[in-house]
């Protein structure tokens, strides 16, 4: 007990002294947040995020400023629970209310493919890519996040480029089914990405469609979308904090993602 | 020939802006009947059903036989100018600000003698053409022009007070990503608008219509999302004091009613765009437009909404859409009264199904966007207020007047 108390004490000191640095992996949430577009017949589109003042230090609000926030659960930097997908709907501990809170703090492996994505926005993250990364950095340990660094967050402030749509649909990088299966073999905590959703832009063409959602949530694992600042994290050795809002039966939630990294 | 309309100049920042004032407002209930005719562009007067005498000014009883069976009927708008005068003095602030002001007495072909606001080219003894217009107070007024249209008659400064001619005015078209938006930009260019500001939202969605608008001479495009208060506020801060004609053509149509498509999200979108969108635009563009209602010959003049004719009667195939349009119509009536203090008029146009991707399943007749735009500009030039455009809208008005229950039970696309 004393040892654990000492550990927490040291932890706090390390944060205060900046030996452990905290990096914000979230984008700002607001009316300019790009929203996913679903093709007609494949589901419904979420409303844009809106913020309307209840009062703004005006007479009717006296001394206060506060707003009404309208948002989809999956907007901006957000958390996908297992219950987000059909394949994960039966997990009792699979929604924002019921997920065990100790799963909201986990180490992260950061896989940097931003060069490949720069050359090809339709970059597919394959099983081989992950195995190669493991050759270099060691295996992905059970309970870690896999964070896919693509440089895509640079596009966040331009919704057109962020969604990157044309007649064929969305063009953005993501994993193929075999890559997802490998991550599940490694028993990851979940998969995080800089794009608007965790799956590949044209993931409807895979078998099964949207393999990341299908397999990852079907294995009671999580997703994180629209992350930023992944370039500030080491490939291994960081811990990320990801508690979503405790929304009743929530399938996900916008959230603040914080990463703890050892100061270089 | 009418004197050339002075070209608008940059405002002198030291000079005080002319404040809006309105001509006398009080009118009898009977006189409001004349406003109703003017609003829809008719030239109609009361006609006695007993003795056929045409009445003017509007009254409760026939001036000839005292019958109370007076009915509004379209009558010929021709007449002869009996006398003319030019007002050099008035105790009314509105007219004082605009002197000299020409008035005339017309002997109408339909019978009565009528005092009119007179165009500068009318000469005593000439044949004239009368129109029912609406003045800055929202009341009906009769104007007269030479019988045969002459060049540049829209330049007449006095009659310009009773219409919203886009010539030399600056227009904001809210949504440039629709075909109607493009056709409006073309029609306003043709009508001589000074600048055409065009809004666009949803940056991820390409639009050939917006591309075409960008290639035009008088247009400038701006991001404008009527569902986002900040976006509306930002654009109002940038160009609000330049907008002289507002054209709210924001549009979000999805088919479906309540039982067969219960979907709060879609109806939320419809309300956000049609109802709250109008409210946001009004909140940020309305006050400055109201304050500029008398700002020179080119001041703020009209706020035009393109609404659906299903705002009057719900079409169950477009159930929630119709409801959101009814909400927008109701709000526009509130805005009409509020903007009237500045002499700025809310004009509502009502359209039926149009030829676009969202009305795929509606059978013809469908409106072509170019026709809608053309009618809108004409309506502004004539100073109308409630304008049905196309066969569907006109039929709805007629059937509602004849038997509202019949149309409620049988309306379809």
How would you sum up this structure, described in words?
The complex is a heterodimer of chains A (264) and B (413). Helix content of chain A is 20%, strand content 23%. Chain A is of the alpha/beta class. Chain A has a nine-stranded mixed sheet with strand order 1-15-13-5-7-11-12-4-14. Chain A has a two-stranded antiparallel sheet with strand order 2-3. A two-stranded parallel sheet of chain A has the order 6-10. In chain A, a hairpin with an 8-residue loop joins β2 and β3. The longest helix of chain A has 15 residues. Chain A is globular. Chain A starts with a helix and ends with a strand. Helices cover 32% and strands 21% of the residues of chain B. In chain B, strands 11-10-9-12-13-14-15 form a seven-stranded parallel sheet, with helices on both faces. In chain B, strands 4-5-6-8-7 form a five-stranded mixed barrel. In chain B, strands 2-1-3 form a three-stranded antiparallel sheet, covered by helices on one side. The radius of gyration of chain B is 22 Å and the shape is globular.
Topology, element by element:
The complex is a heterodimer of chains A (264) and B (413).
Chain A: H1 2-16, E1 20-24, E2 50-56, E3 65-70, E4 78-80, E5 105-112, H2 114-119, E6 124-125, H3 127-137, E7 145-149, H4 159-163, E8 165-166, E9 169-170, E10 174-175, H5 177-185, E11 190-193, H6 211-218, E12 222-225, E13 238-241, E14 252-254, E15 258-262
Parallel strand pairs in A: 5-7, 6-10, 7-11, 11-12
Antiparallel strand pairs in A: 1-15, 2-3, 4-12, 4-14, 5-13, 8-9, 13-15
Helix pairs in contact in A: 3-5, 5-6
Chain B: H1 29-39, E1 44-48, E2 54-55, E3 70-74, E4 78-87, H2 93-96, E5 101-108, E6 113-118, E7 127-134, E8 140-146, H3 157-160, E9 170-173, H4 179-190, E10 195-200, H5 208-214, E11 219-223, H6 229-239, E12 245-248, H7 264-291, E13 302-308, H8 319-340, E14 345-351, H9 369-382, E15 386-389, H10 391-402, H11 404-410
Parallel strand pairs in B: 6-8, 9-10, 9-12, 10-11, 12-13, 13-14, 14-15
Antiparallel strand pairs in B: 1-2, 1-3, 4-5, 4-7, 5-6, 7-8
Helix pairs in contact in B: 4-5, 4-9, 6-7, 7-8, 10-11
């Amino acid at each position: 007990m004393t040892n654990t108390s000492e550990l927490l004490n040291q932890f706090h000191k390390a944060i205060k002294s900046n030996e452990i640095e905290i990096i914000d992996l979230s984008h700002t949430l607001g009316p300019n947040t790009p929203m996913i577009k679903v093709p007609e017949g494949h589901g419904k589109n979420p409303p844009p995020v809106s913020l309307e003042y209840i009062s703004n230090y005006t007479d009717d609000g006296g001394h206060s400023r506060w707003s009404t926030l309208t948002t989809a659960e999956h907007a901006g930097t957000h958390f996908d629970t297992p219950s987000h997908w059909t394949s994960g709907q039966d997990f009792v501990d699979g929604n924002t209310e019921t997920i065990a809170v100790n799963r909201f703090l986990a180490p992260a492996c950061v896989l940097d493919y931003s060069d490949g994505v720069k050359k090809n926005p339709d970059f597919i993250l394959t099983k081989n890519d992950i195995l190669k990364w493991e050759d270099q950095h060691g295996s992905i340990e059970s309970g870690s996040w896999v964070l896919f660094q693509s440089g895509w967050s640079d596009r966040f402030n331009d919704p057109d480029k962020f969604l990157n749509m044309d007649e064929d649909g969305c063009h953005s990088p993501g994993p193929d089914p075999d890559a997802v299966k490998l991550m599940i073999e490694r028993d990851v905590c979940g998969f995080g990405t800089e794009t608007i959703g965790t799956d590949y832009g044209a993931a409807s063409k895979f078998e099964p469609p949207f393999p990341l959602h299908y397999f990852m949530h079907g294995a009671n694992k999580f997703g994180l979308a629209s992350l930023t600042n992944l370039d500030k994290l080491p490939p291994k050795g960081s811990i990320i904090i990801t508690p979503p809002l405790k929304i009743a039966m929530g399938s996900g939630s916008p959230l603040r993602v914080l990463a703890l990294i050892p100061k270089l | 020939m009418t004197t050339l309309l002075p070209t608008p100049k940059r405002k002198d920042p030291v000079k005080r802006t002319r404040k809006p004032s309105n001509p006398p407002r009080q009118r009898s209930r009977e006189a409001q009947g004349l406003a109703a005719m003017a609003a829809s562009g008719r030239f109609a007067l009361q006609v006695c059903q007993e003795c056929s005498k045409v009445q003017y000014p509007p009254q409760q009883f026939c001036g000839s036989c005292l019958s109370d069976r007076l009915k509004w009927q379209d009558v010929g708008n021709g007449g002869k100018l009996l006398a003319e005068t030019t007002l050099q003095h008035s105790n009314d602030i509105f007219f004082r600000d605009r002197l000299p002001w020409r008035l005339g007495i017309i002997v109408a072909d339909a019978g009565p003698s009528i005092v009119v606001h007179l165009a500068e080219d009318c000469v005593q003894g000439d044949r004239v053409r009368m129109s029912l217009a609406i003045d800055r107070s929202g009341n009906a007024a009769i104007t007269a022009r030479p019988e045969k249209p002459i060049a540049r008659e829209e330049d007449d400064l006095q009659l310009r007070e009773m219409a919203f001619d886009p010539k030399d005015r600056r227009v904001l078209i809210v949504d440039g990503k629709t075909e109607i938006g493009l056709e409006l930009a073309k029609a306003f260019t043709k009508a001589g608008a000074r600048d055409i500001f065009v809004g666009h939202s949803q940056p991820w969605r390409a639009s050939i219509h917006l591309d075409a608008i960008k290639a035009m001479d008088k247009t400038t495009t701006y991001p404008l999302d009527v569902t986002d208060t900040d976006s509306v506020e930002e654009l109002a801060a940038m160009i609000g004091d330049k907008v002289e004609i507002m054209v709210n053509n924001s549009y979000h149509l999805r088919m479906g009613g309540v039982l067969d498509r219960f979907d709060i999200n879609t109806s939320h979108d419809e309300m956000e765009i049609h109802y709250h969108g109008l409210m946001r635009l009004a909140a940020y563009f309305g006050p400055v437009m109201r304050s500029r209602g008398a700002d020179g010959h080119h001041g703020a003049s009209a706020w035009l909404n393109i609404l659906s004719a299903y705002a009057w009667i719900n079409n169950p195939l477009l159930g929630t859409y119709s409801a959101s349009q009814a909400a927008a119509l109701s709000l526009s009536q509130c805005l009409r009264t509020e903007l009237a203090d500045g002499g700025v008029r809310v004009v509502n146009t009502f359209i039926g199904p149009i030829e676009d991707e969202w009305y795929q399943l509606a059978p013809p007749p469908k409106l072509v966007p170019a026709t809608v735009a053309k009618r809108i500009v004409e309506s502004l030039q004539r100073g109308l207020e409630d304008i049905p455009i196309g066969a569907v809208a006109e039929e709805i008005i007629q059937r509602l007047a004849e038997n509202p229950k019949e149309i409620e039970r049988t309306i379809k696309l």
